[in-house]
Specification:
- The protein is mainly alpha-helical.
- It has a domain at about 125-200: Alpha Horseshoe (Serine Threonine Protein Phosphatase 5, Tetratricopeptide repeat).
- Helices cover about 70% and strands about 0% of the residues.
- It contains eleven helices and no strands.
- The protein has helices at about 5-15, 25-35, 40-50, 60-70, 75-85, 95-105, 110-125, 130-140, 145-155, 165-175, 180-190.
- Helix 2 crosses helix 3, helix 6 packs antiparallel against helix 7 (about 110-125) and helix 8 crosses helix 9.
- The longest helix is centred in the N-terminal third of the chain and has 15 residues, at about 5-15.
- The protein is elongated.
- The chain starts with a helix and ends in an 11-residue tail after the last helix.
- The relative contact order is 0.07.
- The mean pLDDT is about 95.
Length: about 200
């Protein structure tokens, strides 16, 4: 990102925080920041078009901005692009292309995207396998509670891993410590007294 683009982006953010927010002026600054290729500003323009903030709501335009930011290497844009491709928001749904962008987002440090890679692979293959588990574990190790819950589920029922209720309870406790309701319920339902504690 250029220093000029960075400065304009920060100015736009500041205008969004004043009372009342000056979204029109912020939009002008975002567009100026996007001109030299500021990926974060381009991504923000996509988000604003999706939300209809200071512009007419337009998911196709939002997708175009998000794609541009993703192609510039911006991780959050890659993940959001994958979501759009999976759901068909602003574009034709394409699960294979969504998977491609989830993987790229995960490689850029988007930990939720790593979970989504596993989830989409599971959906495509209609089963759990070592690859699915590896993606879930990668996301879980990075701290994503939904992936931690998934790891607990896999170990509780022995899907693609050796059944181990102690390991299941450990993953559930880690997810529960972040407030994951499914993990909390799973711990309560497990027969082991130790597993019923939500403490990590």
């Amino acid at each position: 990102m250029s220093e000029a683009g960075d400065e304009l982006l920060e100015q736009a953010r500041a205008l969004c925080l004043v009372e009342p927010p000056d979204y029109d002026a912020a939009l002008t600054l975002l567009r100026r920041a996007a001109e030299p290729g500021c990926a974060e500003a381009i991504y923000a323009l996509g988000d604003w078009h999706h939300r209809g903030r200071a512009v007419e709501q337009d998911d196709e335009q939002a997708f175009a901005y998000t794609l541009r930011a993703a192609e510039l290497g911006y991780g959050p844009a890659m993940e959001n692009l994958a979501i759009s491709l999976e759901t068909g928001c602003g574009c034709a749904a394409d699960l294979d292309e969504a998977l491609h962008w989830y993987e790229k987002a995960a490689d850029c440090g988007q930990h939720e995207a790593a979970y989504d890679v596993g989830r989409v692979l599971e959906q495509q293959r209609q089963c759990y396998d070592e690859t699915v588990v590896a993606w879930y574990r990668r996301s879980a190790d990075a701290g994503y509670d939904e992936a931690q819950y998934a790891m607990g589920y896999l170990y509780e029922f022995g899907y693609a891993v050796e059944l181990n209720t102690e390991t299941a309870a450990r993953w559930y406790r880690i997810a529960a410590a972040q407030g994951h309701e499914g993990a909390i319920d799973a711990l309560v339902d497990m027969p082991d007294d130790e597993a019923s504690s939500v403490a990590p």
